[in-house]
Design goal:
By secondary structure, the protein is of the alpha/beta class. The protein has 4 domains: 157 residues, Rossmann fold; 155 residues, HUPs (Rossmann fold, 3-Layer(aba) Sandwich); 67 residues, no CATH class; 95 residues, Arc Repressor Mutant, subunit A, CATH 1.10.10. The protein is 44% helix and 13% strand. The chain has 19 helices and 16 strands. The chain has a 4-stranded mixed beta sheet with strand order 1-2-3-4. α9 packs across α11 and α15 crosses α16. The longest helix has 16 residues. The protein binds glutamic acid (GLU). Glutamic acid binds next to α6.
Length: 506
């Protein structure tokens, strides 16, 4: 059987879109599932759209996401772009000679032709078509030029493009592995430009030549390329080449069902990472945008994805990009993380939120009080939130109360349900007296819970009427981790200070 080879073929036009990450992931999974090769090819023939640094960025992100490829463009240890593999070069801009050879062959065999039409003429033609409500298409003026006419124009150095000579009759038919049988009438297909006036090939030509020469067995790409596929098939036929299989992936949609775009939120993978989404969670999320395991399972490690992924599980309907789901998945991955690792990821966000300053790699200083703390202490702070956290970037906001010198909240918040201000004050006073006598070393959440439970029972109080005011006194928040865990992290001195402050407020 032919070896399975897939390729991810991005154009270096800026950031990596989450949709492209999904394409890369599916190409990777399909190759790995079938013990095949995954190739990274850079499609950089559109000079006008090239963005400096985007290849480096792309390689870095794929690497960070753990999508290892067997061949293609990659970075060495210094971040310099290099290429590896037997089918190179893998940058299309380095393959111009190759394309030239194949275009000459197409022209020679009458599958392509020189077109000398000026921009002005094409512009007028398009306007006329618009007025007549016709589909924009080249009218074929240069299709009929004979060899001498062409030679004369070439000798006169008339600017030209090369166009594909699409047959006027017949149809193209193919079976897409996701969308099924597709049939397109040739008369609806434009005489596609395959070599531009700057001598560079267009995407269509370069893509087909490279997929063939690089022995790609499966072309997996976004649905937006489906309309181009008939043109590609005509090219394969013109060259007399065997075709790869095609699988187009469903569109990504905003919750309002419009096409996912930059305008409605961030779509750059890098932005998601900067916001504190974990790479594993992001991959898991994009996996489910268009593929399902046909079971209720939703959480997959990369290894499990490789085991389970089949193109058969890809659906045709557009997939809604639901960030709530992404948050939910990220939360699951955060909870699975080891506390050390999680704390390391959180520290930069705490620094950015100006809650702490870095003194050394293990020593920090609380910004509001100059108190020195260490990494072990930060781990305790992060542990408070690990169960609730959805995004690493939220950590500053959620643990701000731990580091603040003085909490800011309305005194009404201290009141649980229908209790009176007087009761809240008395209860806090009772708690204060009780905690005052506890040894600093016994300031541990389970111990505190035990002691305060006894206090509640002894005085026939309602738990909510004691624990709610205490929790608010310690955090100043409507929602937060429990009072005993927080008390342990704050330590005796701060706990007593905060309770006193609350009593004064009431
Ligand atoms: N260069 C195209 C892109 O930027 C690749 C499309 C394909 O995979 O054929 O998406």
């Amino acid at each position: 059987m032919k070896k399975i080879r897939t390729r991810f073929a991005p154009s270096p036009t800026g950031y990596l879109h989450v949709g492209s990450l999904r394409t890369a992931l599916y190409c990777y999974l399909f190759a790995k599932h079938n013990e095949g090769d995954f190739v990274l090819r850079i499609e950089d023939t559109d000079k006008a759209r090239y963005v400096e640094g985007s290849i480096e960025n792309l390689v870095k992100i794929l690497d960070f996401m753990g999508l290892e490829y067997n061949e293609g463009v990659s970075a060495d240890n210094d971040g310099k772009i290099v290429q590896k593999g037997n089918f190179g070069p893998y940058m299309q801009s380095e393959r111009l000679e190759i394309y030239k050879k194949y275009v000459d062959e197409l022209i020679e065999n009458d599958y392509a032709y020189y077109c000398f039409c000026s921009q002005e003429r094409l512009g007028k033609m398009r306007k006329n078509q618009q007025v007549q409500k016709l589909a924009p298409m080249y009218d074929g003026k240069c299709r009929g030029l004979n060899k001498d006419e062409v030679q004369k124009l070439l000798n006169e150095k008339t600017p030209y493009v090369v166009r594909l000579k699409v047959p006027k009759e017949g149809f193209v038919e193919f079976k897409d592995l996701v969308y099924g049988k597709i049939r397109i009438e040739n008369k609806t297909i434009d005489d596609q430009v395959i070599i531009k006036s700057d001598g560079f090939p267009t995407y269509h030509l370069a893509n087909v030549v490279d997929d063939y020469l690089m022995e790609i067995s499966h072309v997996i790409r976004g649905e937006e390329w489906l309309p181009s596929t008939p043109k590609h098939i005509l090219l394969y036929k013109a060259f007399g080449w065997d075709m790869p299989e095609f699988a187009h992936l469903p569109l990504l949609l905003n919750p309002d069902k419009s096409k996912l775009s930059k305008r409605q939120g961030d779509v750059a993978v890098e932005d998601f990472l900067l916001q504190g989404y974990l790479p594993e969670a992001l991959l898991n999320f994009v996996l489910l945008l268009g593929w399902n395991p046909k079971t209720e399972e939703e959480i997959f490690s990369l290894k499990e994805m490789i085991q389970r992924f089949e193109l058969l599980g890809v659906n045709k309907a557009g997939s809604i990009f639901n960030t709530e789901k992404l948050d939910w998945i990220n939360g699951i991955y955060i909870r699975k993380m080891n506390l050390d690792e999680l704390t390391k990821l959180c520290v930069p966000f705490l620094i950015e939120a100006k809650l702490i300053k870095e003194v050394s790699s293990i020593k920090y200083q609380v910004s509001s009080t100059d108190e020195e703390i260490d990494f072990e202490y930060l781990k305790k702070v992060i542990a408070l939130e690990q169960e609730r956290m959805k995004k690493i970037s939220e950590i500053g906001e959620s643990v701000k109360f731990i580091f603040s010198d003085k909490l800011d909240y309305e005194k009404e918040l201290l009141i649980w349900k229908k209790m009176t201000i007087e009761d809240a004050k008395n209860n806090l006073q009772l708690v204060f007296e009780e905690l005052k006598n506890i040894d600093e070393n016994n300031f541990q959440s389970e111990k505190l819970l035990e002691i305060l439970n006894d206090l509640v029972e002894k005085n026939s109080l309602k738990r909510g009427e004691v624990f709610w005011p205490l929790r608010v006194a310690l955090t100043g928040l409507k929602g937060s981790p429990g009072p005993f865990e927080v008390a342990e992290v704050l330590g005796k001195e701060k706990v007593l200070k905060r309770i006193e402050f609350a009593i004064e407020k009431l």
